[in-house]
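Researcher: Batch entry, complex prediction.
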Amino acid sequence: MTDPVPDSGTKPVDDWWRSAVVYQVYPRSFADADGDGTGDVNGIRARLPYLAELGVDAIWISPWYPSPLLDGGYDVADYRDINPEFGTLADADALIAEAHALGLRILIDLVPNHCSWEHPWFKAALAAGKGSPERDLFWFRDSADGKPPTNWPAAFGGPAWQQLSADSGDGQWYLHLFDISQPDWNWDHPKVIEEFDAILRFWFDRGVDGFRIDVADSMAKDPALPDVPLENGEPTREKYVGNPFYDQPGVHTIHQRWRAIADEYADTPQGPRVFVAEAWLSPAERLAQYVRPNELHSAFNFDALRAKWDAKELREVIDHTTENLWAVGAPATWVLSNHDTIRHRTRYGRDPKDALEGAGVVPTDLALGLRRARAAALLELALPGGAYIYQGDELGLPEVEDLPEDKLDDPTWERSGHTVRGRDGCRVPIPWSGAEPPYGFGPGTGQPWLPQPSDWAPLTAEAQSGDPGSHLNLYKAALRIRHDHPALGEGRLTWDTDAPEGVLSFTRDPGFRCVVNLTDRPIPLPAHEQILLSSEPLTNNEVPTDTTVWLQV
Ligand code: ISL
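Model: Structure tokens for the complex:
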């Protein structure tokens, strides 16, 4: 067990985040204490001992704010409170204190690009009408020809502009890069800037250790509002250099400002507060701009998530990422799954060309996927830097691809005219115990907001905890070794020159070697002092296919 997060009289520890293993909690689907079918803050509190025992260093909680939940809470109606469906501010305070006592840091989610149409400032903007100062806080525009002011597409389908209906008076359009219920803030307005300063301080003062920044590359827009080019006849959402709504230089000014606020907390016992950027930006040269010394601390590296289960491709991603992030003094941050992507057990069980999409129609070998997910976990946790675990990764959960259409909740389903099912398949509530749904997600037999598969009994945390060969116990063992071994966490790696083609093999000082066999045949086990951990049983002094071994050398 780790030491408690310092709260008084202890020297600040200011670099924990460079090597932290962070567990992502999607609050709606993690654990339901009050039995209404939706996860909640008290559910998370009840499972903190599980997370401490798993051996993670921190928890990132996806948005927990008041919200109509039209985009799972990424549509925020009040940045300074807790969604009543999830609990109260007092519950959140208790969670922060209890997590800290167990040595777990707490990161929460900041959604600065847009709010919910239920946010009071947006409602006031609608009411105040055209030309009002209230409308200046968002992107309201007129259009002469009855068409949207630009051709920009929204993330979930359709145009990124919504016209106010004639009965609300003026027919202006507002910008929403995501759902129509998520109006974009105008970050050129000082009131927006100051409001977010205050939101950061509000949560830092309550004790949170940092923020994950949602779509950290989108707040600034090109004020000329140029159209985007067409791709196959449709306006592109590609993040090409010069895109008017992604990766504009203005985002860095905002990040620098936030960094200064986080650094104001350097002398508190907890140490300075930190940020992790969510920005799907490639190549790593571009991402590195976000983690320069006076900007955000770290950024999810999504190139690794997108990479095929292929030695050459993975090695290129690892080298390219580390080279570019280390050049600006930032650690790498590895992630295999999150609440927006198809779970990696399922991805790795498919033909790579279908891996990131094609839910429901693509043949998938889940046994192969599980074997590779085990190998990938040991690769991820052996790489230099920090690592993220999405809730349920540690249980080897697959994507749920046969959710009934009437249960689908992701705005993508409606906005795509029922052609794209969306991201619900990775958001199915966690199976904790028992033989049938709700598998201990909530008390009693009440069913959760998304139905769980009837064959998940062997995947529950309870079922896996007693089985030494389970996915859960592999994670626990790996996290224990990672915690104790001086070579793991932040640092450097050296590729081993004696490894056969198709094998990823690297050494980390002092005395650690990781070997991942991605070929289709066994390879000889390299010389070692001791086998620390292996994702599959080893026989004949060989590393089987799709297996990772950790060696003391
Ligand atoms: O827009 C994209 C690519 O063109 C996406 O990759 C986008 O960056 C990503 O979907 C952002 O996701 C985050 O913000 C969304 C929310 O729905 C997701 O759940 C969240 O992770 C809007 O807040």
